[in-house]
Amino acid sequence: MRLTILGGGGFRLPLVYGALLGDHAEGRITHVTLHDLDPGRPAAIARVLADQAAGVPDAPKVTVTTNLDEALRGADFVFSAIRVGGLEGRSADERIALAEGVLGQETVGAGGIAYGLRTVPVAVDIARRVARLAPDAWVINFTNPAGLVTEAMARHLGDRVIGICDSPVGLGRRVARILGAAPDTAWIDYVGLNHLGWLRGLRVEGRDELPRLLADAELLGSFEEGRLFGPDWLRALGAIPNEYLHYYYFNREAVRAYREAQQTRGAFLRDQQARFYEEMKRPDAPALATWDRTRAEREATYMAHNREAAGAGERDEDDLESGGYEKVALALMRAIAHNQRTTLILNVRNRTTLSVLDAEAVIEVPCFVDANGAHPVSVAPLPLHATGLVTSVKAVERFVLEASESGSRTTAVKAFALHPLIDSVTVARRLLDDYTSAHPALAYLK
Questions:
Q1: Which of 22, 109, 251, 435 could form a disulfide with 103, with the two C-beta atoms 3.0–4.6 Å apart?
Q2: Integer Cα distance of 219 and 49 in angstroms
Q3: pTM greater than 0.85
Q4: CB under 8 Å, gap of 24 or more: what pairs does 294-300 form?
């Protein structure tokens, strides 16, 4: 089978290739095409992949191209991990938002809206090309904002596009580990939107073990989310929120920590990756070792500003490993290609799963996956506090989609102004003005 990776020069791509190297089943991926607009980046990553493949006799063949149509033809699966505007764009998103005193994170608040407005048109073009050139291919979307982008692509690809994220995987793994359960055998009751979800139960042999965790303050404070949110707040919620909800529940603290930091996360990654790709220009640079060293630093500093605001300390050593999105992608491809039925937390169209949202809304929930794709599993209704956030943020996503299609500045302003983390129409207008000035990709908004 053939896998095409869009954003083939992306830094995290060796995680996906590493997972493919461990797959020796019949009908596995045998050819990987890396597509990127910058030929230098996939060339550097291809060197890392070559080091990974050393000594593996049946390693998937890797080719590189800057021609999108060429990359898509013949693909069985298309993995989308593009970043429109690059890390320089993310850095600008953060800086502009923080100057207005609001959050600029790449998927949450003002930064997420700006990123969505410039990414959706590109994602839609990709979806249309896939439908024309590779109509039988399945698209696995990791491009952020993942839920929003998946919904945009689903309007052209239907259920043949499925969004993945490593946040629920990491959360489920941590909670299972604390409770002494095997993550692969526990049933995780997780529901929400991408980067806006809650773990509401963890069942082992039919018994929900989450109440035992919530009743034990010492256990609650012993893992990442417990330290980030605090045991008292988790008990009040009766659930474990996705780490990104820290931006909502402790917004002022998060914004203050970001404004006081020497460098935003986007700026850090921009500079760090620039050093990596520059180093990889040296023919004698040890590719895999250089990548491993850079990745370890990246993982150790993940959400550092939030942990600082919460007094949560350093990340646990167990959490420095990959969140697992590459394993989700591999399990998803296996399930579809070989009807290896499994259950994964994915971003898919709602259908009738959450009654507060329409059928086309993309949500993040456990899904039963087989040869016919991903099917959301019935879940209990959202509690009222979660319903409010989910419906508000989904409304904002819809305005982003509408603005991306119509080019309407008025609609784009509505997206900013109605987000729960932006409390002023005046600020919303200034944000849009500053973002359109900073990003040529937003020139379509009139």
A1: 109
A2: 40
A3: yes
A4: 294/11, 295/11, 295/12, 296/320, 297/272, 298/11, 298/269, 298/272
